[in-house]
Amino acid sequence: MNIFYNYWLANIPGIGNKKIQEILKYTKDAKTVYNLSKKQLKEFEFLTVKNIQMILEAQNDYQIKEQFENMQKKGVAFVCELEEEYPDKLRNLVDAPFGLYIKGRLPSEIKPSVAIIGARRCSPYGREVARKFGEEFAQYGIQIISGLARGIDGIGQMSAVEAGGESFGVLGCGVDICYPRENIELYMQIQKKGGLLSEYPIGTQPRANLFPYRNRLISGLADVLLIIEAKVKSGTFITVEYALEQGKDVFVVPGRINDALSQGCNELIKQGAGIVTSFQDILDVFGVKSEKKCLENIKNQLNTNLALEKKQLIVYSCLSLEPKSIETIIQEVNLSIPELTNIIVTLQMMGLIYEPARNYYVRTSIKEG
Asked: What range(s) does the Smf/DprA SLOG domain occupy (predicted)?
């Protein structure tokens, strides 16, 4: 039931994130606010007469309850700062949203994440670079954060999803609305292989003023910002500014000096942004070996010294650098518990996997030693 009160607090008209933060400094939780009287609310000096009126009216507003139930029927979850599930990467933002609406799931806090952004009207070269990086990130288990926008953003995300990777879309509208409509396939796929999130309630229509502000969440959720093609005066620079304020690494793909779509990237290089000429440049940020080299090493091990049986290879293939529970593994490989247990023991003895926590398994780290 606390989820409803959190939702209620987030949806009081005229009460924004900052006012909510101030209120919660003096109250235990959202339910306490819900039960405050007019006299008690007047004790909060930072609340205006209008604020108090809106809170009191919201206490008896059955529409908020109906909206909450409608949200749940649509399969949308609500998570606020008072809950553990709220992303830690967003908690320290000066203007962190009190609540998030989610369709799918939130990005993993322990896996690396990269925001791919760039020109909406990109060149064939830009499309190819975005596609290639999206695929590479997917193959290495790096999460993609972006805004489902036309061009570079959507291409990078779709490539990651098609390659079996995880992608997360931060929207400038309600998560029940696909914008732009041309990205409907990506919108549907991301819900299965990642998640959609927004600080705006369901039903919120896309408006031009909502998108720039949403960009702080894209950079906030990412460890690294990667720009592929951008004009000098482009919305990409808004995200760059947020990333720099948040202390995030900014990297760009350089381009020709006479190409308008590369002038923004080249300008950022002059200002000190990192240069990316290969996937390895991003891997270096995370201190990880070349994926190609790692895969070659693993292939050699599997094909020569280890000669894994088919079922052993199936189990090994379902694991990654993110710990996975024994229950999840069973569901994915469709083996009996005794059979799976024997295979896990064998793979551990071979040095291919290990158990970081009880009944959780992960591939042996391939980071630089």
From this structure: 79-285
What architecture (CATH level 2) is domain 291-363? Orthogonal Bundle (1.10)
Distance CA 83, CA 207 (A): 29
Per-residue model confidence as pLDDT tens digits over 6-57: 999 999 999 999 999 999 999 989 999 999 999 999 999 999 999 999 999 9
**Residue 212 preceded by cis peptide, ω within 30:** no
Which class is 113-285 in CATH? alpha beta
Domains in the chain: boundaries = 2-73, 113-285, 291-363
Separation in Å, CA 346 to CA 171, 201, 311, 316, 334:
45, 49, 11, 11, 18
Q: Position 35: which residue type?
A: N
**Polymer length of the chain:** 369
Residue with structure tokens 């405050």? 36
What are the φ and ψ backbone dihedral angles of 144, each rounded to 5 degrees? Answer: -105, 130
How far apart CA 258 and CA 126 sit, in angstroms, is 15
According to DSSP, the β-strands at 77-80 and 99-104 are antiparallel
Phi, psi of 275 (to 5 degrees): -100, 135
Spatial separation of the C-alpha atoms in residues 26 and 32, rounded to whole Å = 10
Tokens of 208: 């031009």
